[in-house]
User: Fold these one by one.
Assistant:
Number 1:
Amino acid sequence: DIQMTQSPSSLSASVGDRVTITCQASQDISNYLNWYQQKPGKAPKLLIYDASNLETGVPSRFSGSGSGTDFTFTISSLQPEDIATYYCQQYDNLPPGFGGGTKVEIK
Amino acid sequence: EVQLVESGGGLVQPGRSLRLSCAASGFTFDDYAMHWVRQAPGKGLEWVSGISWNSGSIGYADSVKGRFTISRDNAKNSLYLQMNSLRAEDTALYYCAKGPRGSCYPYYFDYWGQGTLVTVSS
């Protein structure tokens, strides 16, 4: 199975800060990488698919980049409603696998 | 509005069975693949199983292969997961999730239900 390593596992930032999360795959997955947001007590929500495509209705402060093994997820200006855990997920190979998650908190 | 509503979870003893259901609405159910994804308490996400629009393609995680069976009834807009020989490590919140296409590929999930909790304990 492809291993997905996210970092950091948690972070604390101020409202308005730029937040960056990285995800590294154990092998080349091209751009078959998605990002999800899971707010406390809620189901995950798809934010970005195929590494950099913003899902319909998702605010433009969220973005993704990367290909191959190294990927980045960015919140350009952190908002209070962005408090959540963020997961990357690959689908290049079965099984589709998730990273361990990054918990984002407000400082 | 897409809605996915899971049911059927509960407390079950190890070795016993449980059947989960997911009622779908707000989209043309038989146009899309569907999946089950689970999340153990306080842990991350794990894909469990997926089924294509016509049940022609089905996949399972190794951790459940041979014990779980996914199925769908397009006439009833419903997805199911039959779980047999349950183990303590199957304890999790089970989410029903919609795929973006009729085939299981690409394996990502654009809508999720709120989940149904399965607890396996004696």
Number 2:
Amino acid sequence: SQQGEEDPQALSIQEGENATMNCSYKTSINNLQWYRQNSGRGLVHLILIRSNEREKHSGRLRVTLDTSKKSSSLLITASRAADTASYFCATDGNTNAGKSTFGDGTTLTVKP
Amino acid sequence: DAGITQSPRHKVTETGTPVTLRCHQTENHRYMYWYRQDPGHGLRLIHYSYGVKDTDKGEVSDGYSVSRSKTEDFLLTLESATSSQTSVYFCATGAGAAGANVLTFGAGSRLTVL
């Protein structure tokens, strides 16, 4: 079964708006990562947050991690049409370090 | 996708035939992985390797085998393809930094089993 579950499954917004995606997981982790996948392409790493971190920023991306709730969120600010893609969270658990477990993803559509 | 090459990128085959997918990396990463991606299931780990000739099973390994004879090559074999193995297969590599194994993905191989 999948470790991470993203919510919502699909999200549609206008350009310039913020997009928030959530990820919940079941077991303790070393770190949590977010990846982007454009249609027909491989996944691209966006950001990694370690289990002892609560928030991390990279450009227009902001990731939070709440280990007590076993959840993470990815915020994309001032979205652009080029942000249209699927976004996946992946966890690297304490018991299987090196094997990332992916959620089912959130499909984001940003309308120009 | 730079540094990871998957071949073939597209393949159509018939049920019962063997199929081998190849992943070649120039990243010199220790870890290599094969995932499959199906609609509604995200990515699921098939097999992975933590070094030359060192491999282990993932979540959905039945019907698949792997081999890694060189650091740069990781082969995925479907011994006798079935329609349920129609999927997009992704190879990934990771340097394996402690607590921070960031994955680099190939472009994917789309397999259709008729």
